[in-house]
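Q: Given only this backbone (668 positions), what sequence would you predict?
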């Protein structure tokens, strides 16, 4: 085995891509860079900044490849190609810019030396020129120079020429290359994962995909085709990562962690293929159940995909064509809803999944699954108190949608069914019944937490939100909604609560209606061995976390208000440090954030959750949830003069896990 080190310029690399002499191995993922990242790369080359090295693999045997996102087919190579292991995003971006790809229209301001993607404004401004027009094969730099001179730039004529010359030279910039010779596929796959994880611990799904690609060439293509099939049915969240997890759980293996990659890599090719057939069979049974029985049109309504895995495993183990008893099917759907309400997989998901998959072979799998949830005798019900302080990030968002869907609710603007109230990305559309602008006009009366409560959300289209609701209170527009449709959406009848002054009474009344509907839905699927009419609700609440933004003159502070068993703790969080830490978390990197003058750690676990230590809590949530929570808290900032003082003492007790989806609510 050997590592060759060499250099090649940008123009040569682009020519090799077009000629098929540089190919993407199957283990590579798709192209994901945004236009702003492409512009920054071109700027780095223009300014002579380091642009990183490239890693290739050369082998005497053809490997499985994937299509490069360059907008044109690659030629058949006349020599054995180099397989690109690290640098796909950069080389693909450069190819796009240098071949005038429609999604890589980077422009350069000759006066300010700024780069960005083309826009209507830059098209009208003669100070901006397209990079391709300067570096492309038919570039007429003399004509461009003359046009810029005539445009009256505040730059000396000689400087214009120097800047155009520097832009032309980006195609001559060298990239350092390392080429691996005579490495086998499995070793190359592990190297690929390491270099593409930025020094982080390997993610289980990354290593699994690389391992499968090495062992069963073409297998990732099968998984991507399966993912595309479900995306067409509204379940685009069933991506390769989800399918890898489903595969590891479906294998007939034992151990403490059924989803461990070590188990997958130890399985034979035949076992993997058999497990894959189980996954496909399971999905073919589960998705129709969700869509037809529960009325969940797309995966975007699901708070956690992890709750689907035990269902996929169970139905995947059933022989083709075998009918599941109705009481078992109802019980499994009941468990799925109960697990979602209890946020079963909001914490250590792998541990919970292992526990749940292991009991699927029990004599009564439904009873065993519910026992894992702590539901053994009494059924689960939802009370109005469970909905207090909950917002769109709560698992109860799905239940509020289901309450309306099972009541036959429709859109208020065009009467379309609720299943059609999704945007072009399959995400649910909803709006506030009492618009935020109307409530905020009552200065200081209602907090952002109250305004954005689930009880103020209705699942209607953006046409309804724009053309019917706007900034009007429900007292002004509800008269145009049929009484039957108001009832289907659980809108209270009392006219007084439709006025802004009666908003808190509206929340209380609608929480009661929604809780009643959700409980009724749960009872429709409740197994017979659970006592009807009983409830496991009513556990005293003792923990809460709320975020509030304070700011003025461009300065903002995020305050965390924590309460545990009657004790309170206040943390002042450095918003700049928090946003920087979230950006780092997007790359899987850990960092510290200032809270009350001390450094608090933020880390990313193997499952992609961002965990942040806030006082007595170790707060867990997805990156999107964190960004949404921060944005929401800072949207309605209060004056800095009202900002509470931070506590002087750090919380010394061991941190308890707190789910970000529970922010604003009282939880046991």
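A: Predicted residues:
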């Amino acid at each position: 085995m050997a590592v060759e080190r060499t250099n090649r310029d940008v123009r040569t690399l682009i020519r090799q891509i077009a000629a098929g002499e540089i190919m993407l191995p199957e283990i590579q993922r798709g192209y994901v860079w945004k236009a702003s990242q492409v512009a920054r790369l071109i700027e780095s080359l223009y300014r002579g900044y380091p642009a990183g090295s490239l890693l290739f693999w050369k082998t005497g045997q053809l490997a499985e490849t994937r299509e490069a996102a360059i907008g044109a087919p690659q030629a058949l190579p006349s020599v054995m190609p180099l397989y690109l292991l690290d640098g796909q995003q950069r080389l693909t971006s450069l190819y796009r810019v240098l071949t005038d790809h429609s999604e890589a229209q980077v422009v350069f301001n000759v006066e300010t030396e700024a780069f960005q993607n083309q826009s209507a404004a830059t098209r009208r401004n003669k100070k901006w020129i397209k990079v391709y027009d300067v570096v492309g094969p038919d570039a007429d730099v003399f004509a461009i120079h003359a046009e810029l001179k005539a445009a009256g730039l505040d730059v000396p004529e000689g400087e214009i020429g120097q800047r155009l010359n520097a832009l032309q030279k980006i195609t001559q910039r060298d990239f350092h290359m390392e080429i691996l010779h005579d490495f086998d596929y499995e070793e190359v796959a592990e190297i690929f994962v390491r270099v593409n994880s930025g020094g982080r611990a390997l993610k289980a799904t990354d290593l699994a995909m690389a391992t499968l690609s090495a062992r069963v060439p073409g297998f990732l293509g099968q998984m991507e085709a399966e993912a595309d099939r479900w995306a067409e049915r509204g379940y685009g969240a069933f991506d390769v990562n989800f399918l890898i997890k489903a595969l590891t759980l479906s294998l007939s293996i034992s151990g403490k962690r059924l989803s461990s990659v070590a188990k997958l890599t130890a399985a034979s090719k035949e076992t993997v293929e058999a497990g894959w057939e189980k996954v496909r069979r399971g999905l073919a049974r589960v998705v129709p159940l969700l869509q037809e029985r529960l009325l969940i049109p797309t995966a975007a309504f699901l708070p956690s995909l992890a709750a689907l895995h035990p269902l996929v495993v169970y139905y995947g183990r059933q022989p083709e064509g075998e009918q599941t008893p109705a009481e078992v099917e109802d019980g499994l759907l009941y468990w799925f809803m109960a697990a979602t309400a209890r946020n079963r997989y909001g914490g250590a998901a792998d541990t919970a999944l292992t526990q749940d998959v292991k009991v699927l072979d029990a004599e009564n799998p439904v009873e065993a699954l519910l026992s894992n949830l702590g539901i053994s005798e009494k059924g689960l019900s939802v009370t109005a108190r469970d909905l207090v302080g909950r917002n769109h990030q709560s698992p109860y968002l799905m239940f509020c949608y289901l309450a309306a869907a099972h009541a036959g609710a429709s859109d208020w603007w065009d009467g379309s069914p609720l299943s059609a109230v999704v945007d072009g990305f399959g995400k649910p559309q909803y709006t506030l019944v009492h618009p935020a602008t109307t409530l905020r006009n009552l200065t200081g009366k209602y907090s952002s937490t109250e305004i954005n409560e689930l009880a103020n959300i209705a699942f209607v289209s953006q046409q309804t939100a724009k053309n019917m609701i706007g900034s009007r209170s429900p007292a002004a527009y509800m008269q145009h909604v049929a009484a039957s449709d108001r009832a289907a959406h659980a809108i209270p009848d009392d006219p007084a609560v439709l006025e802004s002054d009666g908003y808190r009474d509206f929340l209380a009344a609608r929480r009661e209606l929604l809780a009643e509907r959700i409980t009724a839905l749960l009872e429709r699927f409740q197994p017979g061995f659970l006592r009807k009419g009983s409830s496991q609700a009513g556990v005293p609440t003792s923990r809460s976390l709320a975020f509030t933004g304070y700011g003025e003159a461009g300065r903002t502070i995020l305050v965390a208000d924590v309460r545990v068993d009657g004790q309170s703790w206040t943390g002042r969080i450095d918003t700049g440090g928090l946003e920087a830490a979230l950006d780092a978390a997007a790359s899987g990197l850990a960092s510290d954030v200032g809270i009350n003058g001390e450094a608090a750690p933020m880390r990313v676990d193997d499952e992609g959750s961002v965990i942040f230590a806030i006082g007595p809590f170790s707060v867990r949530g997805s990156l999107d949830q964190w960004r949404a929570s921060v944005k929401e808290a800072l949207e309605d900032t209060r004056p800095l003069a009202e900002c509470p003082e931070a506590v002087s003492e750090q919380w010394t007790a061991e941190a308890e896990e707190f789910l970000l989806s529970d922010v604003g609510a009282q939880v046991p």
